[in-house]
């Protein structure tokens, strides 16, 4: 008989208790770092006028999704791992895998869009930095990313079923709710056939679309962009070496984001391959551990991404420090000349297309920089 209460994973103390503490501590670290980091990225982009470029809009869009993934997905996954029970039952079993696959889609398409934007900047620098991207164009690009990712992940809702396995006497008769890739026979014929087709192609679809596409696209685009940057530097196309450094820095940042994403997605693909070809020879506990690792790494990627941006991208880091100083109410003690130099680094042309506007407004105080 199923227990009417959730088992306590931390008592009594056994070998599994230490694993529960480790999962809890790691999850809390991911949640805290990811929440603070992603909110910081959104704060910097939304409240700093000079940071509202298309590249930064893409990064802020990614931060919004990563924050939602951490807030709504991580607690439910950890709760299931500790109690072996899905909150809200079948609904959560279907929605959590859907959100995880959709997050990979959002990240994949955002990386591709960033690569295209950086290549466009390196190809026609003067026009790019003096061009103002209107809100309609930016919103359309973000809508394509979100709608595409959400639609491509929809088949995940068809292939998941919640299965309850009763434990033996050694386990105290507790039940274990598992979310398995299994198509319900109660589905309409059309959806049932769609689910079967997707289940058969899921392994290579996820591997090709969510791993190979962003990896190969980022490598090819970054190499082409780096070549354009070197050519522009030799030809003194910018006339300002800071722009060259910052553009090269942004290109390296995109490569770092793609590298972290690829490393965190590898366990997910390994888990899919093992489940498809070697499930009979692998213990269920090993499969469960591999699946948990792949899930935690997806959440870790959402937490590491804003940290990379703040550490590797100098304008983001400086804008974040300015934002923190404004939030604390600290008065600026530097002279007007040093303020201009600081804003030059923060609002340099690499991350914002408002170069001409900045020159026209150089006599005014930058607004919208407070949290």
Automatic annotation (TrEMBL):
Localization, per the record, is: Cell membrane; Cell projection
Gene3D superfamilies documented for this protein: Rhodopsin 7-helix transmembrane proteins (1.20.1070.10)
Source organism, top-level taxon: Eukaryota
Q: Which Gene Ontology terms describe the biological processes this protein takes part in? A: adenylate cyclase-inhibiting G protein-coupled receptor signaling pathway; positive regulation of MAPK cascade
UniProt membrane topology term = Multi-pass membrane protein
- Membrane-crossing ranges are 20-46, 58-78, 98-117, 138-159, 202-224, 254-280, 292-312
Q: What is this protein called?
A: G-protein coupled receptors family 1 profile domain-containing protein
Q: What is the originating organism of this protein?
A: Electrophorus electricus
Q: What is the lineage of its organism?
A: Eukaryota, Metazoa, Chordata, Craniata, Vertebrata
């Amino acid at each position: 008989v199923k227990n009417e209460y959730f088992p306590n994973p931390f008592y009594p103390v056994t070998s599994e208790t230490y694993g529960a503490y480790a999962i809890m501590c790691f999850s809390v670290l991911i949640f805290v770092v990811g929440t603070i980091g992603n909110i910081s990225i959104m704060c910097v982009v939304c409240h700093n006028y000079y940071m509202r470029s298309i590249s930064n809009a893409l990064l802020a869009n990614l931060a919004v999704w990563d924050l939602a993934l951490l807030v709504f997905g991580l607690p439910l996954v950890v709760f299931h791992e500790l109690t072996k029970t899905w909150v809200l039952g079948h609904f959560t079993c279907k929605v959590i895998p859907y959100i995880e696959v959709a997050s990979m889609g959002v990240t994949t398409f955002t990386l591709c869009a960033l690569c295209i934007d950086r290549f466009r900047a390196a190809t026609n620098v003067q026009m790019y930095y003096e061009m103002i991207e209107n809100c309609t164009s930016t919103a359309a690009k973000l809508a394509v990313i979100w709608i595409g990712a959400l639609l491509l992940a929809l088949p995940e809702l068809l292939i998941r079923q919640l299965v309850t396995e009763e434990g033996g006497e050694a386990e105290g008769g507790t039940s274990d709710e598992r979310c398995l890739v299994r198509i319900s026979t109660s589905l309409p014929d059309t959806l049932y056939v769609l689910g079967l087709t997707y289940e058969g192609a899921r392994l290579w679809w996820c591997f090709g679309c969510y791993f190979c596409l962003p990896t190969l696209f980022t490598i090819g685009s970054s190499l082409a962009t780096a070549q354009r940057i070197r050519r522009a530097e030799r030809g003194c196309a910018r006339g300002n070496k800071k722009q060259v450094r910052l553009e090269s820095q942004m290109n390296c940042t995109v490569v770092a984001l793609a590298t972290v994403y690829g490393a965190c997605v590898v366990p997910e693909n390994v888990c899919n391959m093992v489940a498809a070809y070697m499930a009979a020879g692998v213990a269920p506990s090993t499969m469960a551990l591999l699946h948990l690792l792949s899930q935690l790494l997806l959440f870790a990627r959402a937490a590491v991404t804003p940290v990379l941006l703040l550490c590797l991208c100098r304008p983001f880091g400086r804008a974040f420090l300015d934002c923190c100083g404004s939030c604390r109410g600290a008065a600026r003690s530097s002279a007007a000349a040093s303020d201009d130099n600081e804003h030059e680094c923060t609002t340099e042309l690499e991350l914002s297309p408002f170069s001409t506007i900045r020159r026209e407004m150089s006599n005014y105080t930058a607004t919208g920089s407070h949290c």
